[in-house]
Amino acid sequence: MTSPESPSADEQRFSIEFGDMLCMGCRPRGRCRFGMVLHRGPEGSVEGVAHFGPEHEGAGGVAHGGSVMGALDEACGAVSLAAAALSVTAEMDVRFRRPVPLQRDLLVRAWPESRSERGHWVIRATLAMPDADRPLCEARARFVERDPARHYGRFHQWLAERDGGAPVS
What we know:
Blueprint: E1 37-40, E2 46-51, H1 65-82, E3 87-96, E4 105-115, E5 120-128, E6 137-145, H2 148-163
Antiparallel strand pairs: 1-2, 2-4, 3-6, 4-5, 5-6
């Protein structure tokens, strides 16, 4: 993996370069909360930088595992977005090899392992220190392509029925 150029401290960090495709949690901030800047890579991959600040600290001065998993999930999701497909996470396994440090630019890479005709993706991702011999952590995730209106519409309908009221638009 090549070492992507680290963005300057004052540059807004977006999840991906192709459009303002920030998740709903990051849109109000105007930047990715995981400090990620991802670019299209070879063979359907995305790669770039992640940066965990003090707000991501877990215990012992390292990044919280939930933040690390969130960043890996975002990177995996960017793979299908780069292929012009909306997909949602169905499952994800993460292996932590070493603690993830704070306040450092880390290399993140995600790539498609497979994509079925039915829109089922298997995507892998790694997070590593620059010039490291092995990743700090790695993920293998299964994503499923969805039509946003139908997928989220069904969810809101289900939720409204549970609450005994009309669907919320």
